[in-house]
Amino acid sequence: MNRPSILLLILGIVCCGSSRLSAAEGQTQRTPELVPLENFVGSWNVLFSSEGDSPGDKGVGVGHATGKWVLERRFVEQSLVLGAPDGSGGIDVRLLMTYDQQRKVYRCWLFASSGFTRDAVGSWDPSSQTMNWEACGDEKISTTASCGEDGTIRVRTTMTDQGGKRMFRLNGKYTPRSTP
After folding, report:
1. How many domains does the chain have?
2. Residue 52 is part of which domain span?
3. Could you say which DSSP state residue 4 is in?
4. What is the C-alpha separation between 79 and 164, in angstroms, rounded?
5. 3-state secondary structure of 55
6. What H or E segment, with its residue span, contains residue 128?
7. Strand partners for 66
């Protein structure tokens, strides 16, 4: 799996994950805007496919992710391990997500073992149970994650150049892991 595939997967995972907290685990009490981030707390198996302009940009991959509340339940921290189905091309990723009350947006900071970093801003659509993220740099990366009632998340990430030409697309499915 090539670097663009892994990097887009990482950003795609920013928008994924869903394991609803039980009442016994408690609800976020700091601000109601943090409640959608509960979708990122839990454990998932990840399957994705990618397509791009270069032959090396096409492929499939797998991984797993775990997320937990940290820092007085104001941030969600996710840990991810991603790679090709044969176990090659692995990468470790850490994410921090929160709601920024001053800017009125969701924020995410990504750190990968490859040295790649990115920050993104997001918005939550409660009617469709969808989180939308955007990260801009030399390219624009947009991710939409649709949260299913069963905890499955379907993710679509698109990278475009500064002129708006699509360079890469990633489709992912995140399935909650069974707890023993």
Report:
1. 1
2. 3-176
3. H
4. 31
5. helix
6. none
7. 43, 79
